[in-house]
Amino acid sequence: MATHEKNLDWVQLLRGVAALLVALTHARYALLNTPELPLANSIFVPGAMGVDLFFIISGFIMYYSTTDSDGGAGYVARFAIKRFARVWPIYAVITLLSVFVLSGGIDYFHYAANRLTFWHSIGMIPANPHYLPYFSLTLVVGWTLEFEMYFYLVFAASMLFKRLRWFVLASWVLLTVILMPLGERGFDMNISRDLGYQVGYMAIVTSPFVLEFAAGVLIGWLYHQDWARFRSAYVAWHVAGLGVAFALWASYSGAVAAHGPTQWGGPLALMVLALALASKTVHLRVHRVFLWLGSISYSLYLTHLLSQGLVTKALTAAGHGQFAHTWSYIFLSTAVALAFASLSQHYLEQGLSNKVRDGLLKLLPKRPAAAPQQAAPVPITRRA
After folding, report:
1. Residue 92 in contact with residue 367, Cβ under 8 Å?
2. Per-residue pLDDT tens over the stretch 304-315
3. Cα 293 from Cα 288, distance rounded (Å)
């Protein structure tokens, strides 16, 4: 494959925008039971598509970051450890904090049902697999991370098959997402449909959300094919612009209006594909503000509900509770959420994830050092 531009700033842009859209989607709940709610819904509800965008990007990055995989157990173990350390430690901390900020504090644990829900949440297992796709978790947004961890698990397992990895991955997705549910619901991409499996985790395994992850992997594969490129910068810019325009139109016009590969996921996958291929021909410049937003996107996604809860409590305690149900609250809570996420990313996400990653990597057998190459013998030139 010929070398091409490796700049993935556009991915950081998409991550940041996706997290911000989700935060705004939840902030609109401040206008519940007010005449402003219909307008807020029309503006902010499509922002929930940020979840679908995260799934597509996840598949793309997993392909992009593992093109050098040798299929060995050591490589796969390191991949799994890095992904686990990136996602779980801060998720566990924020889940515990959410109990004290959003769920009444220590009293939450006085009820057996709540304790069971908490341990399911920490273990990334659906607490209520029949409440799709949210699973009734302690930290509401944690449901997406349960899908994310499943993606990592399946992708890591497929790498063990080396040259057959893509065949195995595609076969597994076909079996679990298409063939197994086919007899239960027919061809139905509704992510809220409960198939009634006795094993609750099957709600994740058979979910159409997996197809969004698979779409990201496919886009990653196309990105790495030298033939899949635009020869003209003029064409590349137009395709990138049209991809973004189509995704925005489809989402905000109501042409698609829900999670899933046949709803928000479809136009978003086309947008990501357009940007990925265009970026091989032209440089998609991203302002540093959006790069920063992308860098804090995971913390913003995890912590924005806590930030909103703290702002509401602070306004109420100050005797200004009426402002917690206004448009200005959406602005204030989002500004606080961005600041809180930045602090979380700097002091918690990076530090904690790195410590967990390094600690787990030390448990793996050390890779043998490469044998030193012997210098070629210097030919002896005889003098006459």
Report:
1. no
2. 999 999 999 999
3. 8
Kindly state the DSSP code that residue 206 receives in the 8-state scheme: T
Rounded Cα–Cα distance for residues 63 and 225 (Å)? 12
Q: Sign of torsion, CA 52 55 57 60?
A: negative
Which ranges in the chain belong to alpha helices (H)?
9-27, 37-44, 50-65, 73-102, 112-122, 143-159, 165-173, 180-185, 202-205, 209-223, 233-253, 265-278, 288-295, 297-317, 327-343, 350-361
pLDDT tens for 238-293 read 999 999 999 999 999 999 999 999 999 999 999 999 999 999 999 999 999 999 99
CA distances from 54 to 148, 268, 325 (A): 9, 10, 29
Residue 105 has pLDDT above 70, yes or no: yes
For residue 325, the tally of other CB atoms under 10 A from its CB is 18
In tens, the pLDDT along 184-228 reads 767 778 999 888 888 889 999 999 999 999 999 999 999 999 999
How far, CA to CA in Å, does 295 sit from each of 7, 74, 277, 300, 350?
15, 28, 23, 9, 11
State the sign of the Cα–Cα–Cα–Cα dihedral 341, 345, 347, 353.
positive
Closest CA relative to residue 4, chosen from 286, 291, 216, 283:
283
- Pick from 111, 105, 145: which is nearest to 125 by CA? 145
